[in-house]
Every structure is written in C-alpha cells, then in structure tokens.
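Fill in residues.
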C-alpha cells in the first residue's frame, strides 16, 4: 500500500488557508486582481489537500491485482491479467530528475508521482513486477 505522506496534505491545506488569507487581505485593500488570483489558488490547493485527506492511499497491491485511485476520490481494482505494462518514466530537466510510475492497462494509463506514492516510483515498480506481472 502506497499513500500520500501526511505532511504533504497538511502543507497543502496550510497553503490553501494562506491563499484565502491573502484573498481576504487584498479584498480589504480593494485589490481586485489579487483577489482574482488568490481565490482560485485557495480553492485549487484546498481541493488537492482535501483529496489527500479523503483518499491518502493512491495505490495498493494484493494477490488479485492492484487498486488505484480513479477520479477525485474513487477507486478502481485492476486484475494482474489486465495490466499490460508497468514502467517508470524518468525525465531530467533543469538539473532535476523526476520519476513517474506508469501502469498501463491497455485502455487506461494510471500515472503516479513519488509524492503520491510516498516512495520512489522505481522501487514501487520493482515490487509490483515481483508481485504479479
């Protein structure tokens, strides 16, 4: 079972509160442009934090297959037979290295970052390959 680290969810919620505070401050100051920027940011970051609290487990594996998050807070069970490929997409940009775990079921591609998994996608892919594919 791989899930979002609790600290990350807390930081997102605190970020949403900070953006809401900025929106209120700019509203009192009469800065409409600041409010227009801060309110959507507060809503977006707040929704991301809420998702992390409601559905912290993004990927789970058992003997029958994997369960992945589907949509905002839904879950979808994928049997091992339906998984065509498990791979890690590694990209380097501006001196930084990023990894994304890709689980290909033929009709859908489920993508997970290290932040969503709370672990390295390379390590998670190795575990998944040993378990079923």
């Amino acid at each position: 079972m791989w899930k979002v680290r609790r600290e990350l969810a807390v930081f997102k919620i605190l970020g949403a509160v900070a953006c809401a505070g900025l929106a209120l401050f700019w509203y009192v100051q009469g800065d409409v442009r600041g409010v227009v920027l801060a309110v959507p940011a507060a809503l977006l970051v707040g929704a991301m934090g809420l998702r992390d609290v409601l559905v912290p487990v993004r990927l789970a594996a058992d003997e029958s297959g994997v369960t992945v998050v589907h949509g905002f807070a839904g879950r979808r069970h994928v049997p091992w037979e339906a998984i065509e490929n498990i791979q890690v997409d590694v990209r380097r940009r501006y001196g930084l290295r990023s990894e994304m775990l890709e689980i290909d079921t033929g009709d859908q591609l489920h993508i997970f970052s290290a932040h969503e998994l709370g672990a390295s996608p390379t390590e998670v892919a190795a575990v998944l390959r040993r378990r079923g594919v």
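The mean pLDDT is 93.
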